[in-house]
């Protein structure tokens, strides 16, 4: 490529980066839908939350009021309130209504669930591209987008059928980091505030990141008085955006003083924080010491007010009983620190965040004498915080990998051109490939396959196989040969059962459904007579189990001799009558007398 052509290409990449990023997204989205077509075809909503999300959309399209998020298909007839909002329902419902114009409702749902998760990926890609352009070089954004597409944990949240809200929250996180390093103060503050408000209106999973972003913007103002305009824009957009989000999307149940969603509790915090930060930035005292004092005082007021007015939220936000916390929440694997997980799982998740932290530290050092220092410092603090979050919960992995992309891109921007221009061909080829795999974090997923650590044993394979087989569309759909009724089954099977079949279930793994979860645990763990009483009390007329399902292993391990353990050993009480299912079905179905 001659110099003129190179300059022309560079000019196109610089001037049209938004359009080119969206074009790349369209190509990636098309490829994913094609590659995962079987998942789309069989409505393979692999997570309980994805199934519950579709049920929420179905209920709304069927006429359930906008602010009523009670699901009546679990624990009928009263149902239970879920702590989500309808923000994520909007694109799914819109796609379903669009595809209904051309096909059946069943296929409209399948197509919508395949495409909807890819929509926030476009926002995430734009956020990463903007961050990389601002921090590294206007031409570096394609490398950043490429590294994002290579993330393992992050990209899982955008794949077809992953219709729950995590992809949208990651998209907002991408915009947050882009706003933190934006040289235009008002625009950057506005972006961080609105992204935080939208994320909190969706759910509280990103609350620590939103708080950290606010703290970083406050520190920028403390350090540099000229940052007042950025802090004012952030404060107004955070408080105002949260208020709008609450008014437009908070369910009727979320008007209670609960701690697990954007209720009046957290709305009070965001509005109060926005007001105090705006007032501080408006006063904008000349002395840095005074600004520090104001920031500390504002933080103390917010903390003291929270402790005084909302003491019920000082513990776990779910507010479940001690028994349920011990038997369920404390054992949720994704809520455990990364060091408590097998190396085979933790290493591929942590590799890129570690590379990213090294990259942002290097970037901050390189910018120490330039105007980019404050932007790099803000991103470095945010990325390091995200990496440290892995030591709290492994579910922070997708966010940590996403935020690691700018640091990894800097390392790639430095190392890869040098290797590509090396005079030695082995270095140009082998060195470039090796460097790319290391800097992108992809090396971890490649080498872990060959390391003799934490290999799944026969028991684990059997449990994983049973768990996957029992939620297959064709397996559960066979239950529709029986008239619609309430089926008593495992908590983790409940959402999938009501999504695929016309039957109702008792419980799903949601803390506001806590009493029903305990009833399921008590029924399977206690005596057959107690199980019979609980099942009848819920009006269930059939019992469904999946031998070797991951949840069933807990009942057998914790309650030897209990009702489920007896069933697993072929001891069926007289009040249960086996019902036929298709040959080779992994399920066992009983009529309850």
From TrEMBL:
Keywords: Membrane, Transmembrane, Transmembrane helix. The keyword Cell membrane does not apply. The keyword DNA-binding does not apply. The chain crosses the membrane at residues 12-34, 82-99, 111-133, 139-159, 166-186, 206-223, 235-255, 261-280, 292-310, 345-365, 372-394, 400-420, 432-451. This is AcrB/AcrD/AcrF family protein. It comes from Sphingomonas liriopis.
């Amino acid at each position: 490529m001659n110099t003129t052509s190179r300059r022309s290409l560079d000019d196109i990449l610089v001037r049209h980066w938004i359009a080119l990023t969206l074009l790349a997204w369209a190509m990636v989205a098309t490829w994913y839908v094609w590659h995962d077509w079987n998942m789309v075809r069989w409505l393979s909503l692999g997570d309980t939350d994805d199934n519950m999300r579709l049920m929420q959309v179905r209920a709304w399209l069927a006429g359930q009021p906008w602010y009523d998020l009670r699901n009546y298909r679990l624990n009928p007839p009263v149902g239970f309130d879920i702590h989500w909002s309808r923000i994520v329902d909007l694109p799914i419902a819109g796609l379903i209504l669009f595809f209904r114009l051309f096909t059946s409702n069943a296929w409209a749902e399948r197509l919508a669930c395949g495409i909807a998760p890819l929509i926030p990926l476009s926002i995430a890609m734009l956020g990463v591209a903007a961050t990389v352009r601002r921090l590294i070089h206007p031409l570096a954004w394609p490398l950043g987008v490429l590294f994002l597409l290579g993330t393992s944990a992050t990209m899982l949240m955008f794949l077809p059928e992953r219709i729950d809200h995590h992809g949208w929250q990651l998209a907002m996180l991408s915009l947050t980091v882009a706003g933190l390093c934006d040289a235009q103060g008002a625009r950057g503050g506005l972006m961080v505030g609105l992204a935080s408000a939208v994320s909190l209106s969706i759910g509280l999973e990103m609350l620590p990141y939103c708080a950290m972003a606010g703290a970083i913007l406050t520190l920028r103002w403390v350090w540099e008085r000229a940052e007042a305009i950025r802090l004012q824009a952030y404060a107004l957009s955070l408080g105002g955006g949260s208020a709008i989000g609450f008014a437009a999307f908070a369910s009727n149940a979320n008007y209670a003083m609960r701690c697990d969603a954007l209720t009046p509790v957290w709305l009070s915090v965001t509005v109060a924080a926005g007001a105090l930060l705006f007032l501080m930035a408006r006063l904008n005292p000349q002395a840095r010491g005074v600004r520090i004092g104001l920031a500390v005082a504002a933080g103390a007021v917010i903390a003291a007010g929270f402790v005084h007015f909302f003491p019920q939220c000082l513990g776990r936000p779910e507010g479940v009983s001690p028994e349920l916390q011990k038997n369920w929440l404390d054992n949720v694997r994704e809520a455990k620190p990364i060091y408590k997980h097998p190396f085979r799982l933790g290493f591929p998740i942590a590799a890129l965040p570690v590379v990213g932290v090294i990259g942002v530290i290097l970037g901050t050092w390189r910018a120490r004498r330039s105007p980019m220092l404050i932007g790099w410092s803000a991103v470095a603090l945010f990325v390091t915080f995200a990496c440290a979050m892995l030591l709290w919960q492994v579910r922070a992995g997708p966010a940590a990998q996403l935020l690691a992309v700018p640091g990894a891109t800097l390392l790639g921007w430095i190392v890869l051109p040098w290797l590509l221009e090396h005079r030695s061909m082995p270095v140009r080829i082998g060195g470039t490939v090796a460097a790319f795999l290391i800097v992108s974090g992809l090396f971890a997923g490649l080498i872990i396959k060959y390391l003799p650590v934490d290999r799944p044993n026969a028991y684990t394979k059997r449990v994983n196989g049973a768990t996957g087989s029992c939620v297959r569309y064709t397996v559960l759909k066979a239950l529709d040969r029986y008239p619609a009724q309430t089926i008593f089954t495992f908590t983790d099977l409940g959402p999938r059962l009501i999504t695929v079949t016309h039957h109702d279930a008792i419980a799903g793994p949601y803390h506001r459904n806590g009493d029903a979860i305990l009833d399921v645990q008590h029924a399977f763990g206690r005596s057959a007579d107690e199980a019979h009483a609980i099942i009848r009390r819920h009006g269930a007329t059939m019992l469904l189990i999946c031998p070797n399902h991951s949840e069933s292993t807990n009942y057998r391990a914790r309650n030897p001799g209990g009702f489920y353990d007896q069933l697993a050993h072929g001891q069926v009480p007289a009040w249960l009558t086996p019902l036929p299912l298709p040959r080779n079905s992994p399920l066992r179905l009983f009529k309850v007398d």
